[in-house]
Structure formats: C-alpha cells, structure tokens
Amino acid sequence: MLYLADTANLEELRELFYYFPLEGITTNPSILKQEGKALSVIIPELLKIVGDKMLHIQMYQAKHQDIVAEAKFYKRHFNLGDNFYAKVPVTAEGYKAISLLKKEGFNVTATAIFTQQQALVAAKAGADFVAPYVNRLDNISSHGIEVVGYIVENIKTYGLPTRVLAASFKTVDQVHRVSLHGCHSATISFEILERLRSHPMTDMSVDTFNEDGKEIYDLDITA
Questions:
Q1: Which of 63, 75, 87, 214 does the annotation list as catalytic?
Q2: Per-residue pLDDT tens for 32-80?
Q3: Among this protein's residues, is 48 annotated catalytic?
Q4: What is the dihedral of CA 183, 59, 142, 192, to 10 degrees?
Q5: 186 — phi, psi (to 5°)?
Q6: Of 2, 126, 145, 218, which one's alpha carbon is 20 to 30 angstroms from that of 179?
Q7: CB atoms < 10 A from the CB of 146, how many?
C-alpha cells in the first residue's frame, strides 16, 4: 500500500519525509486553509519537500472548462511535472473535467467520493486514483471500510487501471482495515501516521536493548 501525507503543514511534512517512506502529499482547500497561506505561496514550499513524489492539488473551479483551465495553469505556473495530480470532486462537471483532463495527458484524482458507484463512474471516466472518505462515511453509519472494499473489488473485476486512495481517517485501525481489503493507497494525517509506525512495546524493547548492550557493544564504530 502506498502512503501519502494528508497535510500541508511544512514542519510535519519535513519530519515525515525524514523517515517515513511516503509516496507524496495530498491537499484540498480545507487543509490549505489551516496553514493560513495563499496557494501561490504554499505550493512552491510543498514542491521543495515532495521532490519527485506525487503532489495532489485540488481544483477549485466549478465548471468543467474552468477546472481544465485551472489544472493547465497550475502545471505551467508552478512548472509541475509528471508527479502532479489534479484532484477533482465527483460532481457532474467534475466527471466531465476528468475525461477532458485525461485526454490532455493529466494525472487525475477523483475526490469527495462516498459510494462505490461514484468511484466506478470516476474510474470509467479515466481517473488514476479515486478517493473515498472513510471516517466521514463511518460518521453517518455507512461503513467506510466496506465501501473501500467494494471499490477495490469493482476495479479488479472490471480490469480498470484506477487505484483507490482512501482518505479521511481518525484511527490507525481504519487504516489497518482498508489495507486488509486490498486498498492500493491511503492519504493520512501526521498524527495517524505517527501512531501507525510506533508502538509502546517497541519503545520498551529498544530501551532494554540499550541497557543490555552498554558493556558488550565495545567496538568503536567511528575508528
């Protein structure tokens, strides 16, 4: 499963990219608003961190022709490469924009997905990733993990090249369970990424190793 960071906080991202095998960063207007920086300022900062990994930037325009124009502008203005993914919400205009963007050679992530059919339509329109919202579905008793499983199954059944990018997590267990359903990728907050990579028993074990090795690890590795 591919791991992506669902944050635009530069301090969090620098820490994560230091040790975590991330495949990229995802953004949306709400995530960017939390940082209090304009798009023109924060995207260049994110590019310095993400390097050649994926950068998913959500489109803000509503009409399909404007969405396409927006994606083209960002690619040109920020000098974006093949790692740029245009995130498009699955509205009627969004589905139209997905098809057009694919014809123009863009990578596309279909977002704000809440049903298996929304994801399947987006995949048929050509989306490279479809992003179902796990926790938001759980909050309305709609079983987000099951929905992810159905989407993965559909993609496999119909032989589509689209991958599932599960989003909206509040617990490590949600990430664990979507991975068991064969989810291709997940975009996860800093807090949840930190929790899933660590365990108190690991810390206890390392403390014991450090104590037991004090007198027997006697070689100077700097020599």
A1: 87
A2: 999 999 999 999 999 999 999 999 999 999 999 999 999 999 999 999 9
A3: no
A4: 60
A5: -150, 140
A6: 126
A7: 14
